[in-house]
Amino acid sequence: MRELKTKAKNAYYAGNFENAENILNQAKIRWFTTNSEDDPEIESLLSLVGNALSMKTGRTINPTAPLYPEMSQLLNIANQYYNEGKALMSKVKKAEAEHS
Q1: Rounded to an integer, what distance in angstroms lies between the CA atom of residue 82 and that of residue 85?
Q2: CA distances in angstroms from 37 to 9, 40, 41, 50, 100, listed in the order given
Q3: Lower Cβ count inside 10 Å, N or C end of the chain?
Q4: pLDDT tens sequence across 9-60
């Protein structure tokens, strides 16, 4: 069980959310072969993975939405900071990139 949980955590932190979910589902099935109640750690990890997967897909803002101008501006600023950090990282200026 511990190996499956560790593999799932590693996959989650590496951004492999689908893989993490598959491993956790496998762990959940294995858990239920000897237990009748949910494993809180598996359920917690599944919740994190589920949130990550939902954030990864299907997020759109309709231009007619009342908060569209503010959200658009915030997303543009976030994208700008990301691109600046990425450029600094590619130039091996890690300290400056982390500061940005």
Answers
A1: 5
A2: 21, 9, 12, 20, 46
A3: N
A4: 999 999 899 999 999 999 999 999 999 999 999 999 999 998 888 776 666 7
